[in-house]
Structures are given as C-alpha cells and as structure tokens.
Amino acid sequence: MKTKEEIIETNLKQKEFYNVKKKNFATKLWSSLREKTLKKIRKNIGILDESYALHKVWFGDLSNKKVLDLGCYAGNSLSLTLAQGAKQYIGLDLSDVAIAKLNERLKDIPTATAVAADFLSDDFAEKDFDIIYAYGVLHHFPNVDVLISKLNEKLATNGVVVSYDPFETSLPIKIIRMIYRPFQSDAAWEWPFTKKTFFKYDKAFNIEERHGLLGKSKWFFLLGFLPMSEEKKLEIGKKWHREDWEQSQTSLSALFSCMHVTMLMRKK
User: Fold this and answer.
1) pLDDT for the residue numbered 17
2) Taking Cα atoms as reference points, which of 145, 197, 147, 188 lies closest to residue 168?
3) Helix (H, G, I), strand (E, B) or coil at 130
4) Which strand (E) or helix (H) includes residue 262?
5) pTM of the full predicted structure?
C-alpha cells in the first residue's frame, strides 16, 4: 500500500498528465466509451440531472458554509453553484493550467478562489470545511486509509463529504477494466471503488444516504438493437434507473451491481 509521500510523488505525474492530457490509444478508447456511451445513457435517462439535483439538496443552505471543491479541474457542473452560494469557497486541483482557468471564472466572486496544490500535501493548510465536494475524485487515491485520514483532518465538526465515484464491483465491468488496465496511461491514479473500499468509508463516516447508478440501466444501450420506439426504450431505461437508485439504498447486492455510487458521508 502506497504511503502518503509515494502518492504525492505519483500526483506530480498526474498533474503533468492533466496539464497536457496526453493519452495513449487504450485510454482514449475507454474515455470515448465513458463519455460518448455512458454519459449519453446517464443524460438520456436522467441520471446526470438527478445526481446534480440531489447534490444540491445535500449541500443545503450554503450561505454560512466553508466549501472545498476537491479535484475540481477547471470547474465541474456545480462549481459555480458552490462558489456563488458559499460563505467561503476554495477550488482545489493538481493542475495549475486548469486552476488558472477556474480563477478566471471566479474573478467576480470575492469569497471564492482556486488553488493548485496537492490535497495530501502540508502545503495545503486550509481546514474546517463544512462541505468537501468530491465529484469523480476519491477513486484517484490508491491508499484509502491515507485519504480518509486527510478528509477527517480537513472537515469541520459535523462536516460532510459529497462524493461520486466509479465502482468495479460489477463482474462485467471488472473484467473489462482488468483487460484494459495494463494499457491504461493513467492507471497509477485510477482506482475505482471495490467492496473493500466502500466498507472502509462506511466504517470511517456515517453514510447518511447513498445511491448506485448504472446497475440495470448500464444495459440501456442494448435496447438500441431492438425493434421498439424511442419512447418505449426511454421508459424502460428510466424504470431500470429508478430501480437502481432506490434499491441500492438498502441492498448491498443492488449497490454492488452498479457502475457508479454517490454518497453523503458525515464526519463521526
């Protein structure tokens, strides 16, 4: 298991990767599948909109909260919502190129700023965050114990982490990732959640709410090969998503059949 210092060293390579975004063929292929196929599915059957709407509910009233937008790159879909509403907002990312772009977007918000730094490094001294928003970020840390310790250190009393990350607990996805991983140019910092990862977060925090996504609904694309109307396909896809969304709250088997998980985790 990598130490904090080893992860920080790896993150220097991650910073360079995201500054230039130089991907090999395998990584480009997987990115294309993820962005063109999975993102299209999430958009078409309402997964993206529902996730963002839920995150806003989990944020609550931001007016008296200090917020860390962790691994935000040049800004995610809710960065400006957080920046405009929070008492204090800090966007944090490894990429200085991305952070320069985000600071340009934040220039008219006096309570908001963006910082290029490593979350694990002592150089990033800010703490007492009421909310840490980590959209597609927590799975970039190979040592979950180191990350959990840092999250708890940075959270204020009763603070929360709002997360969204990929799972590799579904057997078909696990097999695909195993085939792809040896050729992946960003493998050193891509660690989709396993069952063990989930249980570590469950032990360290109070998971107040969780939802799995792309369980049954990950097969939505197969409906494209069937002779039925687009309306019927969408109806089935939305039904599958609703089953994933609701059943994953109480059933671990339903949760672990999903490709993604979003969680509201409160500091103990």
Assistant:
1) 78
2) 197
3) strand
4) strand 260-267
5) 0.91
